[in-house]
Specification:
Elements (H helix, E strand, L loop, with lengths): L1 H11 L4 H11 L3 E5 L8 E4 L5 H8 L8 E5 L8 H7 L3 E3 L7 H13 L4 E3 L19 H7 L3 E8 L12 H10 L4 E6 L9 H10 L8
Parallel strand pairs: 1-7, 2-5, 2-6, 3-4, 3-5
Antiparallel strand pairs: 6-7
């Protein structure tokens, strides 16, 4: 009932996105824990992608992260409540069905980084079942190189398998699992910022497998 009420209020009221995200996490019974250094202004945040919940979790961090923006697929903008949170967070949407628009999207990310805004992307390009199990796509790391911006890794972990959102899963089915789950928590493990000091493909290969934030940190 609490989750349904927050979803309804999220549609009707002009809440600040980080407050809306935190209220939704609480209503869903999800405890949030953040470890590591704070988000660096003007950094490109790169990390794993587990679920639609990731958008809510990262938005919940935006108050402490300053002007954090995200990159998400265009379909997210049409999702109930989640889409509204994303739009109010000034998410930069990427149209995967139109590859020719990618340079323009990269230019938006580069401009945001140059303006001192932290921008968060999921370089895996899809949701997966665990932290960093697949090679990262390098495209958005070019924005960090072009803006001479630092790169900061993060790892998302959930304490319950109901958080997973992969394959042919639907948002409605996933939401039902999350609402039925008990004892769910989300952890964001932030790494230290580092310079973008290599070609984008080399940087992607290095960051996707090495020096990940420690779960004990």
């Amino acid at each position: 009932m609490a989750g349904g009420l927050v979803l309804l209020l999220g549609v009707l009221l002009p809440w600040r996105p980080d407050l809306m995200a935190r209220a939704l996490l609480r209503a869903l019974g999800i405890r949030l824990r953040v470890t590591g250094p704070g988000v660096t202004p003007g950094a490109l945040l790169v990390g794993n992608h587990v679920s639609w919940l990731d958008i809510v979790v990262m938005t919940a961090l935006s108050r402490r992260a300053g002007r954090l923006r995200m990159v998400a697929k265009t379909e997210v903008a049409t999702w109930p409540v989640i889409g509204r949170i994303a739009r109010r967070q000034r998410t930069i949407f990427v149209d995967r069905a139109r590859p020719r628009t990618l340079p323009g999207t990269l230019a938006q990310v580069t401009a945001a980084l140059r303006a001192g805004q932290a921008v968060q992307v999921f370089p895996e390009g899809t949701t997966t079942c665990g932290p960093h199990p697949v090679p990262w796509r390098a495209a958005f790391l070019q924005a960090a190189l072009d803006a001479d911006a630092p790169v900061q890794t993060f790892t998302l972990r959930y304490a319950h398998p109901a958080a997973g959102f992969v394959g042919e899963d639907t948002l409605v089915a996933s939401l039902r699992r999350v609402l039925a789950a008990r004892g769910m928590s989300a952890a964001v493990l932030l790494g230290a910022p580092r310079p973008a000091d290599a070609p984008r493909r080399e940087l992607a290969a290095r960051l996707s497998h090495a020096d990940l934030p420690s779960a004990s940190g």
